[in-house]
Automatic annotation (TrEMBL):
It comes from Paenibacillus amylolyticus. GO terms for cellular component: cytosol. GO terms for molecular function: beta-glucosidase activity. GO terms for biological process: carbohydrate catabolic process. This is Amygdalase. Keywords: Glycosidase, Hydrolase.
């Protein structure tokens, strides 16, 4: 049976600088918001870096990237998604000149990728706002952030044009609503942050994102620049129209971000919300024009779905990727309570395609699980992660279904292709990788890398261009 995946499908994996590089204060790097959040989003931040913060060392990718890229190449990656740590390039964020050593590191990394024919896919800002910008300016609440971001992206585009073709402006830009500090560098505690300031910060990020698209197209005419949103299909808990409306409203809150990136203007449905919350977004001269610079493609993360009800008393709360909702009685959940819903990925792909008619890129998907390192019959250390293979197989089957539905999908980069520190809980034991890294929550471990069973499985998926997936050819 022929595979539904197009010949040039971009198979690969994804990571973020702050979750794996380590070297948090090496070669001139400044502190970022990640260096003061040893427990992810769950506890208050610290004043400065503390030893219990696993991200300070990460998996030492800064020193071991050559070994890791070689492993990605062995799996057959066509693309590798990583982010640039903003505070490596501008340690404080508001300097006029970039840090050359920081720039050199990414030159080396991208060269290493190209050595194996792997195309880098770069997130410009992935939850790693320089701490100075957060403390001094209150992050994206302040309009000056647009200027700092513009300087940063201009440096990146000039430096890496020809080396990086695919760019994402902000990781999960919509998550600022849930996690204003991690996502938007907003130092004001969430409980004290007004809706007005929050949505003004959203506006600043959206303008900055569109500005990056404009500049990127001018500086690198061949580049493709996308937005990146956290997708979270939201189902009505029951067919009760009250629940259906509640689900629609939750989806609109989320769709705002991709709508503006793809269409170039604010959707009308938000007027009602802004009015109800007394939010008055301040547009400056030229903002409307800048927003018209729409993205080349829509990228998104997909892990789970949630339900909503019109009745606030109804349903049991469930966890999800930063966005919580009501538990779906038809779905099972991961060890971290994220409900597993492969068909939600097909629905998401169809929805975005219908809505925007722009190519889609799944840049995060995967299962965070506790792995057991064992020694196999041949004496090799490995992990028999059949649960991860099952999860990814089932999701990729649904990508196949969406392709058959006529959706245009550019590629798929699984999240955390090598074990790294988790974002929401800052743990090592929540592992996503095809490659096991010997590091534990207490900081112990040799940092050695071991191939899991899923390593060989994914290699085969890429080699066969998805033809080996179980169920992929199933018809409606
Ligand atoms: C996304 C982020 O929210 O989900 C990643 O873009 C993150 O940075 C991933 O790691 C998985 O979440 P977690 O909390 O399990 O690491």
């Amino acid at each position: 049976m022929a595979s539904p995946f197009p010949k040039d499908f971009l198979w690969g994996g994804a990571v973020a600088a702050n979750q794996l590089e380590g070297a948090y204060n090496v070669d001139g790097k400044g502190l970022s918001v990640q260096d003061v959040t040893p427990n992810g989003v769950t506890t208050p931040r610290t004043e400065g870096p503390t030893e219990d913060n696993l991200k300070l060392i990460g998996i030492d990718f800064y020193n071991r990237y050559k070994e890791d890229v070689k492993l990605f190449a062995e799996m057959g990656f066509k693309v590798f998604r990583t982010s640039i740590a903003w505070s490596r390039i501008f340690p404080k964020g508001d300097e006029l000149e970039p840090n050359q050593k920081g720039l050199q590191f990414y030159d080396n990394l991208f060269d290493e990728c190209h050595k194996y024919g792997i195309e880098p896919l770069v997130t410009i800002s992935h939850y790693e706002t320089p701490l100075h910008l957060s403390k001094t300016y209150d992050g994206w609440v302040n309009r000056k952030m647009i200027e700092f971001y513009e300087r940063y992206v201009t440096v990146l585009f000039h430096r890496y044009k020809g080396k990086v073709k695919y760019w994402l402006t902000f990781n999960e830009i919509n998550s600022i609503v849930e996690e204003p500090f991690m996502s938007g560098g907003i130092y004001t505690p969430k409980e004290e942050l007004s809706d007005q300031d929050l949505y003004q910060a959203v506006h600043h990020e959206l303008v900055a994102s569109a500005l990056a698209v404009k500049l990127g197209h001018e500086i690198m005419p061949d580049a493709k620049i996308g937005c990146m949103v956290l997708s979270m299909p939201t189902y009505p808990l029951t067919p009760n129209p009250d629940d259906v409306v509640a689900a629609m409203q939750a989806e609109q809150q989320n769709d705002l971000f991709a709508d503006i990136h793809a269409r170039g203007y604010y959707p009308k449905y938000m007027n009602r919300y802004f009015k109800a919350k007394n939010i008055n977004i301040k547009f400056e001269d030229g903002d409307e024009e800048i927003l018209k610079h729409t993205v080349d493609f829509i990228s998104f993360s997909y892990y789970s779905s949630i339900c909503k009800s019109g009745d606030p008393e109804k349903g049991k709360e469930t966890q999800g990727n930063l966005f919580a909702g009501i538990e779906n009685p038809y779905l099972k959940a991961s060890e971290w309570g994220w409900q597993i819903d492969p068909q939600g990925l097909r629905l998401t792909l169809n929805k975005y395609w219908d809505r925007y008619q722009k190519p889609l890129f799944i840049v995060e998907n995967g299962l965070g699980a506790i792995d057991q390192l064992i020694t196999d019959e041949d004496g090799n250390k490995t992990v028999k992660d059949d649960y991860r293979i099952q999860y990814m197989n089932d999701h990729l089957v649904q990508v196949g279904e969406a392709l058959e539905d006529g959706v245009e999908v550019m590629g798929y980069t699984s999240w955390g292709c090598i074990d790294l520190v988790s974002a929401s809980t800052a743990e090592m034991k929540k592992r996503y990788g095809f490659i096991y890294v010997d590091r534990n929550d207490d900081g112990s471990g040799t940092l050695e890398r071991y191939k899991k069973k899923s390593f060989y499985w994914y290699k085969e998926v890429i080699r066969t261009n998805g033809a080996n997936l179980i169920g992929v050819t199933k018809k409606l």
